[in-house]
């Protein structure tokens, strides 16, 4: 299946470079470009886009607002943040808003293609270090009663789902979780889908935040 990608960046050279890189993959098709967040949202609403590579600092509508708007759509695409810094404040805010992961703009071409494939497959797109930074940023700014609320949300998980959610919170991939918990990758994916629904999460980072706030990490 071909993955249809939209590149949203106000730098024409960045868009051209990414389009050239992705054009070399038989599994990916660049179906559009946007110079700001508003154009990206309009393009996705028109349909036919699976993944958006989203720059954060853009005119008219920045990548954070655009990410939030995209993920509020009935059938949202996967959103991968593009950044020049791995611990950028904008990245933290975008991921907390629901972005599915991030890529450094100087990521090697083969890794960019692989990252898109992984996100489409539901695999994590964050290193444990970045996940920890994000969790710390969100929870440090959160009111104390967030822990009680998170614990109430986590109670709806089965024991097995809770084990999977904790592993997700620790940055484990589906394959790693499958080995550790002695189940198939397909079963892991099914559990994660149920966890997303029950915790009202759109990505693995939000699951990690919920587990941390519930004091299970």
Automatic annotation (TrEMBL):
SMART domains: HTH_LUXR, REC. GO terms for molecular function: DNA binding. GO terms for biological process: phosphorelay signal transduction system; regulation of DNA-templated transcription. Keywords: DNA-binding, Phosphoprotein, Transcription, Transcription regulation. SUPFAM superfamilies: C-terminal effector domain of the bipartite response regulators (SSF46894), CheY-like (SSF52172). Gene3D superfamilies: 3.40.50.2300. The keyword Ribosomal protein does not apply. CDD domains: LuxR_C_like, REC_NarL-like. This is DNA-binding response regulator.
């Amino acid at each position: 299946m071909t993955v249809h990608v939209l590149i949203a960046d106000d730098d024409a050279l960045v868009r051209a470079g990414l389009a050239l890189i992705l054009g070399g993959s038989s599994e990916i098709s660049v179906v559009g470009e946007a110079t700001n967040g508003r154009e990206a949202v309009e393009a996705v609403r028109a349909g036919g886009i699976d993944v958006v590579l989203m720059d954060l600092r853009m005119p008219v509508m920045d990548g954070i607002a655009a990410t939030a708007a995209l993920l509020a759509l009935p059938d949202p695409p996967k959103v991968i943040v593009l950044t020049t810094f791995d611990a950028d404040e904008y990245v933290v805010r975008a991921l907390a808003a629901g972005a599915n992961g991030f890529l450094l703009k100087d990521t090697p071409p083969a890794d960019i293609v692989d990252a898109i494939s992984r996100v489409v497959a539901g695999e994590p797109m964050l290193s444990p270090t970045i996940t920890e930074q994000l969790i710390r940023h969100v929870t440090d700014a959160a009111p104390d009663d967030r822990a009680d609320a998170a614990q109430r949300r986590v109670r709806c998980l089965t024991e097995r789902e809770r084990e999977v959610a904790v592993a997700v919170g620790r940055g484990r991939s589906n394959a790693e979780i499958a080995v550790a918990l002695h189940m198939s990758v397909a079963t892991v994916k099914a559990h994660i889908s149920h966890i997303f629904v029950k915790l009202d999460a759109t990505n693995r980072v939000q699951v990690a935040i919920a587990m941390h706030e519930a004091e299970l990490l």
